[in-house]
Amino acid sequence: MAAKRILYVNYNPATLVRDEQLLMREGYELDSVFGADGVMTCGSVAEYDFVLIDDACPLGERKKLVAWLTANFPKPKFYLQSGFRSVPSDSSTESSSRTDKGITLSLCLLEE
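Request: output the structure for the sequence above.
Response:
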């Protein structure tokens, strides 16, 4: 089975390396960009299984980014990395978590 491909949209350079290592250890293939500008310059996100948005992304920017992605690339699912912070209940419909050496990565499926 092929590894799932993720486009990781990071908003916190201090956690970028940690998050990338955690996801790669879990078997994901990963490309990282910084912020909405990084997403828009990467070309197409259609080749990814899902887009993972860092929880440091401000809510207003997150909503705009998900709306833009959904309008332009309807295939991938969009997740918010909730990490160690709470996620607004109005933005999630599904969640999962993975633990690696004491680090828990929680993911919440975003709706437009």
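The chain has one domain: 5-109.
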